[in-house]
Task: structure prediction
Amino acid sequence: MQLGKGVEWTAHICAMLPLVPPGRGLSVDALADYFEVPSAYLAKQMQLLRRAGIVQSVRGKGGGYRLARPIDEISLLDLVTAIEGPTPAFRCTEIRQNGPCGLKRKDCRRPCEIASAFAEAERAYRAALASRSLASIAQEVAVNASPEHLLDIAGWVQRQVG
Amino acid sequence: MQLGKGVEWTAHICAMLPLVPPGRGLSVDALADYFEVPSAYLAKQMQLLRRAGIVQSVRGKGGGYRLARPIDEISLLDLVTAIEGPTPAFRCTEIRQNGPCGLKRKDCRRPCEIASAFAEAERAYRAALASRSLASIAQEVAVNASPEHLLDIAGWVQRQVG
DNA sequence: GCGTCCCTACTCGGATACACGATGTCCGAGTTGGGCGGG
DNA sequence: CCCGCCCAACTCGGACATCGTGTATCCGAGTAGGGACGC
Result:
């Protein structure tokens, strides 16, 4: 049970994207250089974000990616759902209906107790992720970082959008 | 991000194991037949449970598996940890230290905000699983099942331990 | 008849294949911006 | 000098390989139980 690397990558990226000026974008290559991750694979993850409506893409010279909506309207759950898909981690295959003592379908009106317990736990997980917006994370980062580092980042973005 | 099938299988199995008389066990083949799952692969999962101290194994004729401790001292979290391992789902690779604007190690005394947020969510997930003992689940199943079904199961166990 | 030894059947246990999804890569589609030529 | 067209560079977008983990399987190790043999 592992989350894909794309979750970490895109979380860091979305926390930085608000720094790009309106109307401009950051290319996949630039983002990949910034975090030292393979650009072609990062592109794949950015596609997922675009389809989920989290970022917008602009083609052609000077194009790239930018956030599709205000950062405080993007939660960590949105990211995870976009990258990993909406499928729950626990897959109930209804094995209680199998074998010599299997329940008949008509006796399965109540959901499987085990599946329910896992669903409840996942609800708690998703609720925790949904309650954390990327804005709150970006703010924490900004508060804890040194002023020089923030200037460093702003300068890099400036050079990219040239 | 998917949990292995072993989690579902062993959860159902552990909920049934208390029915076996003290001193006896159920063989992997019997359990595999009961739930219609591949016995050789189920054996692998039972090994993990044994190493985690959840079940005991007895070799030789009439042997098999039985619970190693009272069922109310086994939580769903114990099962998940035994099968999936203790590794968190979110893997922080510290990419904030990468690239042209990467933080230096000495500036990383505070943990990564993103990793912290995911760790918090996983704590909620694990807490929910830890609070559900297999005893409570087995009881719910028993309460909701029909008397015939319970007798059916008891008879099957009786035939297995012969 | 009784005790002991051996043998066999049964079960676990770890080493060994296979498959599918995550990871990583490549080339074509589409768009913008600027350069170049003509007016 | 100004306008418009064309070209080329740049970027996204989806199709194509590769690798690792989950899934599945097999055969050897170990044990208990019973039967046979001897006393």
Remarks:
- Chain B has a mean pLDDT of 95.
- The longest strand of chain B covers residues 55-58.
- Chain B touches chain A through 59 residues (CB under 8 Å).
- The beta strands of chain B are 55-58, 64-67.
